[in-house]
Amino acid sequence: MSDTPQATSLPTGDRLYFRQLLSGQDFATSDPIARQMVNFAYLIGDRETREAVVVDPAYAVDDLLDILEADDMRLTGVLATHFHADHVGGNMMGYSIEGVAQLLERQGTKIHLQAPEAELVRKTTGISASDMELHAPGDIVSVGAIDIELLHTPGHTPGSQCFLVEGALVAGDTLFLDGCGRMDLPGSDSAAMYRSLHDTLAKVPDDTVLFPGHRYSFESSATMGHTRQMNYVFKPSSEAQWLMMFGQG
Predict the structure, then answer these.
(1) Whole-number pLDDT of residue 175
(2) CA-to-CA distance for 24 and 51, rounded, in angstroms?
(3) Where do the H-state alpha helices sit in 73-147?
């Protein structure tokens, strides 16, 4: 079996607006931290109503707003996969990173979070409870006629979430094309990560395209079927094997 990722493309539809943007290349081009961290931000919206949300805005929020304006779209919400500063802004490695706090100052809206992540996002970004809309697993955020399902996938952080929309899975740091998010950081949980990958994401069809939170691979996306075949995180067949693989058995 070939280990070359299958060719994938951005999801398209009559109404779906979807853009994958690489930090340091597509936006925040003058920011060396953005280039080093290779984060992805995503824009998802409805082409008819011109409404859009941004996923994980960090580094240069004006750049993201400018891209939306150039596409004749308007921001109506923010989705955050988890609380780390390279995804939502805040302080990291002695650097101050722009993010949701600055974005909400420029464009009054709400940030959509899983409830367990709320206090962590507040501490990281300084935003208030009134800036947040808290969700439970399986909730739907609608952007015009586009429905985005929120999948609670703890492991990397307690309130990590992925977004399932019209054949695309925006996974943050829960799942990369190779590997998954770190499980040795405050709030991480190896057993929870196993269940998120092997149980929660089991509902995601093989032809769904995975869009990760960082470009840690040559390719920027791959089908879930290919990822399940090639990514070592899907090799263990039990939680006990998983924990042993990470030295916790």
Answers:
(1) 98
(2) 25
(3) 85-88, 100-106, 118-125
Q: What share of the chain is helix, strand, coil (3-state, %, to 5)?
A: 30, 30, 45
Question: Please, are residues 232 and 242 in contact by the beta-carbon 8 Å criterion?
Answer: no
User: How far apart are the C-alpha atoms of 204 and 210, rounded to whole Å?
Assistant: 10
Q: How far apart are the first and last CA of the chain?
A: 31
Which run of H or of E encompasses 244? Answer: helix 239-245
β-strands 40-46, 16-22: how paired? antiparallel
- The H helix count followed by the E strand count for the chain is 8, 14
Strand blocks (E) in the chain: 16-22, 40-46, 51-55, 74-79, 90-92, 95-97, 111-114, 132-135, 140-143, 146-152, 161-165, 168-172, 209-212, 222-223
Query: Rounded to whole angstroms, how far apart are CA atoms 150 and 140?
Result: 6
Cα–Cα dist 114/81, whole Å:
9
The residues of the chain scoring below 50 in pLDDT are: 1-7
